[in-house]
């Protein structure tokens, strides 16, 4: 209901696929899917929201798209050299709003939603 009120639409998934494999293989498959999904969409949802004058929905979609891209980049960075000596291969996710941080530069509070930085989730 909230999605529709913000100018979007929702269809429940028609088919759910379950993959069985190694963690790294599943992660690679997920990253490939996300990359192709972002390439195919080209911001069409954002353009549609802007054309309809729904700047709030466009802002949320832009924020979500940027977060997706940052997740992909940071996960690939963490995978590039797992367990490297002296390297801090991790990033942090705010559990409230999903904002991302390098684990080297953790804020004391999330600047987006003011969640205490000690609650951030570490992704390695």
Distance between the termini: 35 Å
Strand adjacency order, main sheet: 2-1-3
Largest sheet: 3 strands, antiparallel
Apparent shape: globular
Helix count, DSSP H or I runs of 4 or more residues: 4
Summed up, the domain count is: 2
The overall pLDDT average reads 81
**Can you write the helix and strand succession as a string?**
HHHHEEE
Number of strands: 3
Describe this protein with a few key phrases.
124 residues, 3-stranded antiparallel beta sheet, 2 domains, mainly alpha, 46% helix
Overall description:
The protein is globular, with a radius of gyration of 17 Å. The protein has a three-stranded antiparallel sheet with strand order 2-1-3, with helices on one face. The longest helix is centred in the middle third of the chain and has 26 residues, at 55-80. The protein is 46% helix and 7% strand. The chain is mainly alpha-helical. It folds into two domains: 1-80, no CATH class; 85-124. It has four helices and three strands; from the N terminus they run ααααβββ. β1 (91-93) and β2 (100-102) form a beta hairpin. α2 (23-41) packs antiparallel against α4 (55-80) and α3 (44-51) packs antiparallel against α4. It comes from human gut metagenome. This is Rubrerythrin.
């Amino acid at each position: 209901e909230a999605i529709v009120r913000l100018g979007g639409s929702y269809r429940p998934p028609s088919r759910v696929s379950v993959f069985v494999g190694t963690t790294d293989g599943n992660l690679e498959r997920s990253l490939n899917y996300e990359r192709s999904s972002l390439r195919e969409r080209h911001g069409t949802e954002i353009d549609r929201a802007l054309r309809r004058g729904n700047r709030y929905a466009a802002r949320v979609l832009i924020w979500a798209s940027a977060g997706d891209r940052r997740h992909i980049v940071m996960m690939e960075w963490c995978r590039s050299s797992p367990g490297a000596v002296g390297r801090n291969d991790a990033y942090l996710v705010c559990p409230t709003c999903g904002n991302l941080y390098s684990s080297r530069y953790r804020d004391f509070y999330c600047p987006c939603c003011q969640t205490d930085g000690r609650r951030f989730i570490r992704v390695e």
